Amino acid sequence: MRRLAAALLPALVFALSDLVVTVWSGRPEALGSPLYHLLLPAAALGRFAGMFVLAGAAWWLLRRAGSARGWRVLGVISGPLAYSLSAMWHVSGYFPTGQAAYYGLNPLVVAAVGSSIATAAVAEMLWRRRPAIGLLGLAALGWAVLWATVLWDGGVHWFYVYQQGFKALFG
Amino acid sequence: MITDDQRWDHFSAAPGCPDYLTTPNIDRLAMAGARCDNAFVTTALCSPSRATFLTGKYATRHGVRNNLTAWDPAQTTVFEPLMTAGYDCAFIGKWHMPGGVPDLRGVSRFITFTAQGGQGQYVDCPLLIDGVMTPRPGTYITEDLTDFALDWLAQRPQDQPWCLYLAHKAVHHQFEPPAHLKGTMDNIDLSGLPPEAYAFMTTLDRNVWEGTVTGLQREYRRYLETLLGLDEQIGRLLDNIDLSNTYVIFTSDNGYSWGEHVITGKRWAYEENTRVPMIVAGPGISPSHPSQLLLNADVAPTLLEWAGAGALPEAQGRSFAGLLAQESSQWRQDFVYEYFVDFPYNVPAMQALRTDQWLWIEFDSDDDPQLYDIGDDPHTRHDLRSSQPQEARVLAARLAELGAVIRSGGQV
Q1: What are φ and ψ of residue A25, in 5° steps?
Q2: What is the secondary structure of chain A as a DSSP string?
Q3: Which residues of A are less than 8 Å from B341 in CB distance?
Q4: Does A169 lie at the interface with B, CB-CB under 8 angstroms?
Q5: Residue B117: what pLDDT?
Q6: Nearest to B199 among A41, A47, A156 (CB)
Q7: Are B2 and B93 in contact (CB under 8 A)?
Q8: How far apart are CA B403 and CA B405, in angstroms?
Q9: A155 pLDDT above the threshold of 90
Q10: More exposed terminus of chain A, fewer Cβ within 10 Å: N or C?
């Protein structure tokens, strides 16, 4: 159970944060302005953390628990996967099924996978208490994916690649 | 002149403009002519709105329903009847309609760009000049397009009437101001942003594809700086235009939300998205603030009436020339807004009815309709659908009626 909880930590943090955003976003009068402006940014950051960062924490916790690689891989992908499934569900009300499925591969998902791999690689090096060329390369690759898909000029370049894919599939 | 993503209240002569924004050149035009405070687009999205400006039709009829549906080259644009009437026409700036850049009939000069899916880029943007792709190293696009416009005005035959369609990239994302204006808005007080806006809301799916992921306030400051740069270039153009014999229409393809309804972007039927600047100056137009509901679909019919040219086939908008000359007071009391799904943007398809007082929105999704009293609630924060059921029924019926007129190609 502890292993499952650790592996799903990114997904749980994402899901809880996403729920807060879904319920309270746009309703400052319901919460009161101070609480609203505390809770909503925190929830938005929680979504971000679950998608992009907490894979490293999951990897560390699972390493400490002596978990097998399969559990650790689950810890790396659970956050991006939770976001992808949530995103598909949110758009399924107005995109046809195929397009909603393609939405589940959007640039944020790719970026989240890249970032999660990178943070897990860093967590592994911290666990070993020494750097390794392969892990450094993996971290660099993961962050390069993050940069190319959402940070380079605000993500506009990969966005157009993604749109070309949409046109090829559905256009 | 068509700007991009400029809100109706973001030039300093506009009512409600934030006091940190000063646009002396747009204001100069507004002081000289009619500042139309109730101007709207029928679809608050780049490609459909641009097609509407050119054809006078709703997206339902011209077919460019979103940023992915192709322009139909068989469509007649405003340039063809203008050319037939003896006008020399130029299209300079943003085309941005899917289906590739067409062989645009009716223009003697066609300068546009295809970079970044047709959005262009602020710096070093290659231009397609009369069909020839031309690198433009060392240029800033707002200034570059203005240079081409001024060159065309200077070099064309002076004894022939003309029409210049100048469509700027500014102030679209990536909100990149000219170098001398970068940072000039860093210290303004943004405490007046909408109360529902919050830090990191730009990372939400409904906003993230707008490219504003680095934060609402940071992006908004760059937007304002880019707008200042645009104002400078508009000043250069106006310095070379004689309003005693030239009509000028200044407007935008759509507005832009900066936090209202927790949105950064456009597409929605809310005022911040649908309402656009509309300044009209020229012979016989006195300084005024007409309050009638004008549409982007009205622009082409108006230009044609001024030119004495033949009407556009199937145009759905109507000329506001007589209205601004104060020769006529009959005008529409409402209009329909339409939005079609535009992948991957998280915005459901919707139709809305806007009257002088009310905004009624229906979504093609599980979302409930919404009703707002624009007079009492201009920022559409209080949905009155439950408390005003009778009004909701009347507006829904009118939306269905007028929507059918539009889909069948009728005039509005």
Answers
A1: -60, 135
A2: -HHHHHHTHHHHHHHHHHHHHHHHTT-HHHH-HHHHHHHHHHHHHHHHHHHHTHHHHHHHHHHHTT--HHHHHHHHHHHHHHHHHHHHHHHTTTS-HHHHHHHTT-HHHHHHHHHHHHHHHHHHHHHHTS--HHHHHHHHHHHHHHIIIIIGGGGHHHHHHHHHHHHHHH-
A3: 94-95
A4: no
A5: 87
A6: A41
A7: yes
A8: 5
A9: no
A10: N
* pLDDT bracket for residue B251 (50, 70, 90): very high
> What would the mean pLDDT of A145-169 be, rounded to a whole number?
91
B243-266: burial string, b at 16+ Cβ within 10 Å, e else: beebbbbbbbbbbbbbbbbbbbbb
First to last CA, chain A: 46
* H helix or E strand, kind and range, residue B222: helix B216-238
Here the tokens at position A27 are: 């309703």
Residue A25 zone, left/alpha/beta (φ > 0; ψ -120 to 50; rest): beta
- What was the pLDDT predicted at B410? 97
Amino acid at B70: A
Instruction: Give the pLDDT band (50/70/90) at residue B35.
Output: very high
Average pLDDT over residues B10-26: 97
Report residue A154's pLDDT band, with 50, 70 and 90 as the boundaries: confident
* Residue A153: pLDDT band with limits 50, 70, 90: confident
CB-CB contact of B68 with B340 (8 Å): no
Q: What is the pLDDT of residue A156?
A: 86
Rg of chain A (C-alpha set): 17
Which tokens belong to A36? 């609203």
CA distances from B272 to B10, B202, B276 (A): 10, 17, 8
* A34 interfacial to chain B (CB closer than 8 Å): no
CB-CB under 8 Å, B365 with A94: yes
Kindly tell me the sign of the dihedral angle through the C-alpha atoms of B252, B253, B258, B262.
Answer: positive
Average pLDDT in chain B = 96
The pLDDT of residue B328 is above 80: no
Query: Which chain B residues contact residue A163 at CB under 8 A?
Result: 68, 117, 343-344
Q: How high is the pLDDT of residue B99?
A: 87
